[in-house]
Every structure is written in C-alpha cells, then in structure tokens.
Amino acid sequence: MAVNTFTLNGELVSASPGATVLEAARENGVEIPTLCELEGLSNIGACRLCLVEIAGSPRLQPACVTATTEGMEVRTDSERLRQYRRMILELLFAERNHVCPVCVANGHCELQSRAIDNGMEFVRFPYQHPDLPVDITHARFGIDHNRCILCTRCVRVCDEIEGAHTWDVAGRGTGSRVITDLNQPWGDATTCTTCGKCVEACPTGAIFRKGSSAGEMEHQRDRIRFIADARSKREWTP
Hints:
This protein is α+β, with helices and mostly antiparallel strands. It has helices spanning 21-27, 79-95, 110-117, 153-162, 197-201, 222-233; strands at residues 4-8, 11-15, 51-54, 61-62, 73-75, 134-135, 141-144, 167-170, 177-180, 207-209. The protein has 6 helices and 10 strands, in the order ββαβββααββαββαβα.
C-alpha cells in the first residue's frame, strides 16, 4: 500500500494515505497535546491545542484535522507553539470558573494536566466570572457549566456512539453552552438513555456522576474507543 513520506520534527517518517498529522505523530511516538480530540469520535479541531507548524503555511494548523501529504514538513514543538498553547489554556481558564481543589475531577482532569504539561503557572487574562448554572435534575448525573470547555465531546459521543443526540450547543461566543433536548433540563430530556458515555468522554469535571466528591471521579475514556472499534469490526466482546 502506498504511503505518504514526510518530515516530522526533522526526521523522515511515513503515514497511511488519509492519516492526519496527529495520527501519524502518534504512530511515530510523538505526542501532541489535545483536548477536544478523543479516539473513537470524529475530529473537529475545536480546542486548537494541537496546532503545529507546516513549512510553507503562514498559519498554524490543527494536527487532528490536517491530513498528511507527500513531502510536507511538520514541526510539533517550538517556542511559538508553546506560547500559543499556553495562551489557549489561559483563555480556557479565564472564560469559565475552574476551581480545581473542589472539582470532582481534580487530579483526573485533562485541562489541568495540559496546563501543567505546558508550563501554565498563571493566567494573564482577566477572569470573566460568568454566572453559570449547575444542572442536577438528572437522576444519576449532573452538569456544571462552570467547568465546561465546549470541546463538544459529549455532543459527538451521544450522536456518533449512542445515537441519541441528546446534547448540542446553543448560543454564540462566550454565551455558548452545551444543552440537552433543545435547552430542556437534563432530567426532562426524553432522548437521554442514561448510558453515561458523555460522563466518560468529558475531559474535565463538567459532566459528573452524582455523589462524587472532590478529586474522586476518574474517567474510563478508553471505553469510547473500544465501543467504536467493536462496532466497526462487529466485535462485541472484550
């Protein structure tokens, strides 16, 4: 099978036709930080944390939705990229109300981990302190919009894996929020199957299991990839 040969951080590597830069990087042992990407779901390039430099392009490109091409030159780590990633993380923290010590996902949060990995020691931007609700009308789960980063993992897993499409996004700009059933309380969402896939997909503590206390909730995100792979291969046993 033909492959694309290109340069990744100064080394010649190969990738399958159609593979994204992110997929090719992982296959070659190069990690690129992500937040909205989750194996088993479609990629949308929402968080922009996986930006990379491509020779000949004046703009940084999201690795998760940029296909590899023959002869391309990609750099995944540079001072410019590190500055952009820190800025993106700082903006995410400033936009909502992330108080890590009292979050159910403290110590198990991807946003928190990315901030540590990328050397984010403080936030340079003014905090917005939005007045956002917590919806605990569902019998088993809750959503704290203060911790949501609008990665849309919950929307995609509910649509693409569960097939319910309970979740969606409403509003624009800083007024955007994830909603259930045309902005009904989650407990009134008749399309919700209570499967919990959105809980496992969430990168932060925004969607949580009721009864979880600070630092208590771990995610099993590999379940999403397993279900997607099993469905495509018609393999329904571990």
